[in-house]
Amino acid sequence: QQQVKQSPQSLIVQKGGISIINCAYENTAFDYFPWYQQFPGKGPALLIAIRPDVSEKKEGRFTISFNKSAKQFSLHIMDSQPGDSATYFCAASMNTGFQKLVFGTGTRLLVSP
Amino acid sequence: NAGVTQTPKFQVLKTGQSMTLQCAQDMNHEYMSWYRQDPGMGLRLIHYSVGAGITDQGEVPNGYNVSRSTTEDFPLRLLSAAPSQTSVYFCASSKLQAESSYEQYFGPGTRLTVT
Fold first, then answer.
1. Phi-psi region of B66 (alpha: psi -120 to 50; beta: other; left: phi over 0)
2. Can the peptide bond before residue A40 be classed as cis, meaning omega within 30 degrees of 0?
3. Rounded to whole angstroms, how far apart are CA atoms B70 and B58?
4. I want to staple B6 with a disulfide (CB 3.0 to 4.6 A). Which of A90, B69, B106, B107 is the partner?
5. Once rounded to an integer, what is the mean pLDDT over residues A1-18?
C-alpha cells in the first residue's frame, strides 16, 4: 500500500515554464513533508520541506503548497531551467524524534531548452 | 568532511551468494538508514538505526541484516542474494534532534545486480 502517492510519473516542461508535481498522503500522523531532488547517478538531496502548520513555503524558485484538509501537497518550480531536469521525490514522516521517511514513487522532470 | 560514503559502487552477484554493502558517515549523525530504489517504486526503507547497538526494520527488511557497532558505520548484509534484490541501494544519515529540518544526507549509492 503506497502511503504517499505522487503524480505525474514524468513531466516535460519548456524552459521558463512552471513545473508542478503533486503528492497525496493518507496518514494524518505525518507531520513533516520534504521534497528530494535526484540527478542521474547521484543520491537524493533535500530540496525543500514543510510542516503542516503552514500552507506554503518558498525557497527561491521552489515552492511547496500544502493543503492539510485535502491531505495533499505539491512542488512548484517557477521559471524552470534545463538544470532542474532531475527526478523529484516527495516524502513524509511522523514526529518520532527521527526521520523514518516514506517516499513517493518519483517524478522524472525534463526541462527542454 | 566526506559526508556519507558507500562501497562498492557496483556489484554483480550470483544467486545464493552473500555480501556486505558498506556505509560510513563522518558527520556524527545518530540516525542511519538503508533504502533500496527500484523503477516506479521510489525509495523504500530496509533497516534503520538510531544509534550504536540499536537497529530496527523498515518497510522491506526480508533478506537483509544490519548491525551498528559504531556511530560512523552501518553495513548492510545480503544473506543469500536473489534476483529480486537487484536494485540501487542508498545509505542515509541525519541528526536525531534536528530543529527544523530533519535533513537526511544520502550516499552515492551501490548498484547491485543479482544473476
1. beta
2. no
3. 20
4. B107
5. 93
Q: How many CB pairs under 8 A join A and B?
A: 63
Helical ranges in B2-111 per DSSP H: none
pLDDT digits (tens, 9 = 90+) for B6-29: 999 999 999 999 999 999 999 999
Q: Rounded CA gap, A77 and B57, in Å?
A: 35
Please give the helix or strand (H or E) that residue B1 lies within, else none. none
- B33 to chain A: which residues are within 8 Å by CB? 100
Query: C-alpha grid cell for residue B25?
Result: 558517515
**CB B43 to CB A89 under 8 A?**
yes
Residues of B in contact with A99 (CB under 8 A): 31, 94, 102, 104
Q: Does the pLDDT of residue B99 top 70, yes or no?
A: no
* C-alpha dist (Å) from residue B107 to A26, A38, A70, B33: 29, 12, 34, 11
Q: Does B50 touch chain A (CB under 8 A)?
A: yes
Phi, psi of B113 (to 5 degrees): -120, 130
B101 — pLDDT class (breaks 50, 70, 90)? low
- Of A17, A1, A27, A5, the C-alpha closest to A106 is A5
DSSP letter at B104 equals P
